[in-house]
Amino acid sequence: MGEENGMGEMEGRRAMAVDQVARENVYPRPLYSHEDVVKDRALFMDSMRRFHDSMGTILSIPVLGGKEIDLHLLYREVTQRGGLEKVILEKRLKEVVTAFSFPSTTTSASFVLRKRYLSLLHHYEQVYFFGAQGPPIPPAASCMTRTPKIKLERPPDASDLTMKKPRRRKREHAETRGKESHHFTVTGSIDRKFKYGYFVTVKFGGETLNGVLFHVEQPGEASSSASVLPPVNVAAANGTPTEVKRRKKRRCRSSDPAHPRPSRSAYNFYFAEQYSKLKALYPEKDKEFSKMIGESWRSLNAEEKKVYQDRGVEDKERYRREMEEYGEKQKLQQSKEVTEEELFNAKNGKPE
Questions:
Q1: Boundaries of each ARID domain copy (predicted)?
Q2: Structural domains of the chain ordered from first start
Q3: The overall pTM is greater than 0.85
Q4: What is the mean pLDDT of residues 55-69?
């Protein structure tokens, strides 16, 4: 009976301490030493749960690549290097990522680990590693995700950041017609990168907005294909793999004027020759030309077909030669772009 009363009193004191922390908005006292939580994973998880309970926050184990992130390993690797701020300033976040042995397909590990550390372990680090007391200490500016400033013509609306581009253009024309432009600067964070830009979260006043920031290439860059979303090709999506591959190649050729003209077969040469003749003789029967030319081609003997087959072989060789030259030019262009990007990142101090 006395033991039960003692445990009840301990729980009561703990609840009072939690209420006091929530009321005063101050850090709770550490339950264990930093050395103890680093050595013992069970102590670490116990202290983490109690810490978040005291702060009035929820502890949820994040997932990356289909697996739970080991918060104990993350805390240990970061504090071994002097804390998150020092890791960021010294650009040692890749060393922390290496300790997790993520698969090569996980390209956003650095960003995700930093984001989760800030949300789940930053305040815990202040108390258990740095011994902080009193009001919570916000993360240093160097630890936050660097995001380009976005200028909007008016206070941001959630519908403005959707992927429906035609509607946005219509609103922009309506806003700019007969009105002065008022610029607002907002900051936020990049949640995830995709081929044509970024999924972002921005804060304006007391509102938090989620949306899409599209990448627009500067003049002189290799291609402008990333500045707009690609058209949705429902037929290609539902077609066979061969159809999808063929249509993809056709889009690539149409987007690059320098791409060599594809080779033509013997029948293509014969068709073009006969079509021009039939068009001059029977302009009103153009819908029947394909059938007429096909029957005519089948009636040719081997010697007659060989003339067009030789032309097809020559054109195929021409296409192979031009594609080799085109491939070399593409490699040089890509090498130049990579060098320019590295110089830009080094100059602007882009985070890892």
A1: 38-129
A2: 9-143 (1.10.150.60), 150-227 (no CATH), 261-348 (1.10.30.10)
A3: no
A4: 86
